[in-house]
Design a protein that fits this description.
This protein folds into three domains: 43 residues, no CATH class; 185 residues, Winged helix-like DNA-binding domain superfamily/Winged helix DNA-binding domain (Arc Repressor Mutant, subunit A); 131 residues, Regulator of G-protein Signalling 4, domain 2, CATH 1.10.167. It contains 21 helices and four strands. It has a four-stranded antiparallel β-sheet with strand order 1-2-4-3. Helix 17 runs antiparallel to helix 18 and helix 19 packs across helix 20. The protein is globular. GO terms for molecular function: GTPase activator activity. Keywords: Cell membrane, Cytoplasm, Membrane, Signal, Signal transduction inhibitor. It is found in: Cell membrane; Cytoplasm, Cytosol; Membrane. Pfam families: DEP, G-gamma, RGS, RGS_DHEX.
């Protein structure tokens, strides 16, 4: 049965559908019978019935031939759902079992390695990496999910996964609002279960939503309370499965920070689907529809077969395209906002400096502090933003070097600083300085030998034969990565840095 309401209704909150609300919806929709589970609707006593009503209302009864079904996302959803149907086949699908653990049972699960092996066997996939990639895409869209992790990805190990119910599939055109999310998070806080505890980002979202919907929070709380009461009446195993499926649904539509939101629609693809003729291009510069006269009966010229060199160039080109680093605009905007928020207190255009700017006042205190070896708290705090902040601050480099000397591992930083200084030397002094750096840090039996990989060492050995300012570029980059991943993190966690961060006027020369 398809619901075709004449008026588009959208209830502001998802909860238990009241009798009056249902009667109103049926009256406006000219619907004379209540949908039943036989029609694909959940139990009317559950909060998920309203979800189903809203999904049917939003679809407008378009059916399988509607415009929405031809969207780029819908095409992907249909292909994924075909694979999911094969995975759930009783004979040739993935075996679903109940796992017994200490004092509890984990119902309806399968392992990540079973998914990978099934794909390799049934989808004509030879590469395990490709199988993992395809499985991760399907998990990111919410068709199956890890039972104990908010990050929707596939791991080739014994991690347990569970299939999502078709009711929560993205092909149902869900567009949940923030009020729906607020009801869900509020309901989670009412259930005293360890598996239902809010993650840090969920707790922050709940606090933010509570401030945004302060006026209607009492109503949201009532909706959540009603849903929690209905859930308590369910069987324990059924409740556990439904809770995990609902959590996975929100992990798709409100993903963990840093994860890609797969529900976003690519505006370029949508534009091509709506206006295919406007975006059609001819490979050879000839339009298909430019001929207005009858065609002549001359034989068409044979298509030119690409040569082996041309095919090899195409292969090289597409391999380079695969290696390109691409980011969604939403991810770029998120990173830009985070960077702006982090550095806002250091931007004098946005935050007045303290002390005042010497260029617009007669106070030179700011210059004195910058030249001083007694860094202020704000200056030390900036060192924790990244290793680049430490290396570009003279006082930061000095403190970092003292810390490394205390751990007898200062040769990496001294080498990096020596290479930086080499790039500023006059050209006539470069060959001599290159040999000095080589003898001190890289030559066999060097007094301050550094640890570089064989590839960087080989390139540096060749570069030293024709010394230049950038002879040590590869070795310097390798050492930089080592310091960033190891030495810098230990420096930031050290008690000396924490003391320096908390002290406002404490001298730093005796800290290490």
């Amino acid at each position: 049965m398809k619901l075709k309401p004449r008026v588009h209704l959208r209830y502001p909150l998802i909860g238990v559908l009241t009798t009056s609300a249902l009667a109103e919806w049926m009256c406006v929709s000219k619907l004379h019978c209540i949908p039943t589970p036989a029609d694909g609707a959940p139990d009317i006593s559950s909060g998920r019935f309203t979800h189903w009503i809203m999904a049917q209302t939003n679809s407008g009864g378009q059916g399988t031939n509607g415009v929405a079904d031809e969207s780029p996302n819908m095409i992907v959803y249909r292909k994924m759902e075909e694979v999911i149907a094969r995975m759930q086949d009783e004979k040739n699908g993935i075996p679903i079992r109940t796992v017994k653990s200490f004092l509890t049972k984990i119902p309806s699960v399968f392992s990540g390695s079973e998914i990978v092996q099934w794909m390799i066997k049934n989808l004509d996939i030879e590469d395990q990496v490709e199988s993992l990639h395809l499985g991760t895409l399907m998990a990111a869209h919410g068709y199956f999910f890890p039972i104990s992790d908010h990050v929707l990805t596939l791991k080739d190990d014994g991690t347990f996964y569970r299939f999502q119910t078709p009711y929560f599939w993205p092909s149902n055109c869900w567009e949940p609002e923030n009020t729906d999310y607020a009801v869900y998070l509020c309901k989670r806080t009412m259930q005293n279960k360890a598996r239902l505890e809010l993650a840090d980002y969920e707790a922050e979202s709940l606090a933010r939503l509570q401030r945004a919907f302060a006026r209607k929070w009492e109503f949201i709380f009532m909706q959540a309370e009603a849903q929690a009461k209905v859930d308590k009446k369910r069987d324990k195993i059924e409740r556990k499965i439904l809770d995990s499926q609902e959590r996975a649904f929100w992990d798709v539509h409100r993903p963990v920070p840093g994860c890609v939101n797969t529900t976003e629609v690519d505006i370029k693809k949508s534009s091509r689907m709506k206006n295919p003729h406007k975006t059609r291009k001819s490979v050879y510069g000839l339009q298909n529809d430019i001929r207005t006269h009858s065609p002549t009966h001359t034989p068409a010229p044979e298509a030119k077969q690409p040569s082996e060199e041309e095919l090899q160039e195409q292969i090289t080109y597409w391999q380079l395209q695969l290696d390109r680093h691409r980011l969604k605009m939403s991810k770029v905007a998120e990173s830009l906002l985070a960077y702006t928020e982090q550095y806002i207190e250091y931007d004098p255009f946005l935050t007045p400096s303290d002390p005042s700017n010497p260029w617009i006042s007669d106070d030179a205190t700011l210059w004195e502090l910058e030249a001083s070896k007694e860094p202020g708290q704000q200056r030390v705090k900036r060192w924790a933003f990244g290793i680049d902040e430490v290396l570009k601050d003279p006082v930061g480099r000095e403190q970092f070097l003292k810390f490394l000397e205390s751990e007898f591992s200062s040769e990496n930083l001294r080498f990096w600083l020596a290479v930086q200084e080499l790039k500023k030397r006059p050209i006539r002094e470069v060959p001599t300085r290159v040999q000095e750096i080589w003898q001190e840090f890289l030559a066999p039996g060097a007094p301050s030998a550094i640890n570089v990989d064989s590839k960087s060492y080989g390139k540096t050995t060749q570069n030293v034969k024709d010394p230049g300012r950038y002879a040590f570029e590869d070795a310097q980059e390798h050492i930089y990565k080592l310091m960033k991943s190891d030495s810098y993190s230990r420096f930031i966690r050290s008690s000396a840095y924490q003391e320096l961060l908390q002290a406002k006027k404490k001298k730093s020369k005796n800290l290490f």
